[in-house]
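Continuing the batch. This is chain 6 of the set; chains 1 through 5 are on the previous pages. Same settings as before, nothing changed between runs. Recording input and output for traceability.
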Amino acid sequence: MSDCIQLSFAVCRIGIYTCFRALCCKGPPPPRPEYDLVCIGLTGSGKTSLLSQLCSESPENIVSTTGFSIKAVPFQNAILNVKELGGADNIRKYWSRYYQGSQGVIFVLDSASSEDDLETARNELHSALQHPQLCTLPFLILANHQDKPAARSVQEV
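Output for chain 6:
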């Protein structure tokens, strides 16, 4: 009988210890995984606005990116480190220098832009899709400015 009582006490101690550890000694939460993305598109396509919205920043005082900027976009289960590259003619030729280490691509285009700008965006997208450092990565293509009257549908773009 005493062996049974000792065994019961041992099981109770283990149970109490397990509950105590679960409630009081969790420690820091595990780190969220981080993913490095590159965000590209022509000037005025809305890259900075998109990232500001995702970071819950004010949409006021947004200026066109010259060069590049990096934003950490937090989500519940992950953090996206997004390198936004400026879309001006003189900057686009340097985009490929920032591709290394990327794990995905966000391509933003202005669906309400002129035919010439849309053709330039198509060419830049095809160039990115064929780049050796990007061709195997997932691409997210956003047709921005859908709220404008001149916006093309996704099928037209």
